[in-house]
Design goal:
This protein has one domain. Helix content is 82%, strand content 5%.
Length: 119
């Protein structure tokens, strides 16, 4: 899948999160696209570094610390992007979980659609 399609899929997942999770708000399409990009960049850089540094704790907690780190990265992205607001840690935690689930479902549907059209 191309990067552009993944970016748009992440933006759609973020929009769905704003509809489901109270405390997560996005103002407009442009803010949604920028916020999806910011969440991806923060998770790819700082999130990966934090998960690597806390690997022993992640093993002890059976990966729950990774969920907490994802929530913190979601919250951090909310502080950087104007028009994207996360009101606290609990909405960020729930938003990151819902975004992962919705994003995974969208990725699955897109891969099924792309595979069907390639046949």
């Amino acid at each position: 899948m191309s990067i552009l399609i993944r970016w748009i899929a992440s933006a759609v997942a973020l929009y769905i999160v704003t509809q489901i999770v109270p405390g997560v708000q996005v103002n407009g399409i442009q803010s949604t696209l920028i916020a999806a990009l910011a969440i991806g960049l923060v998770n790819a850089t700082l999130g990966t570094l934090l998960k690597l540094m806390t690997l022993p704790i992640g093993c002890l907690t059976l990966g729950i610390s990774g969920l907490v780190i994802n929530g913190l990265m979601f919250w951090l992205a909310g502080n950087f992007v104007s028009g994207f607001h996360v009101t606290g840690f609990l909405p960020a935690f729930l938003g990151s979980i819902v975004m992962s689930l919705v994003g995974g479902a969208i990725d699955f549907l897109l891969s099924q659609f792309i595979l069907k059209t390639a046949d």
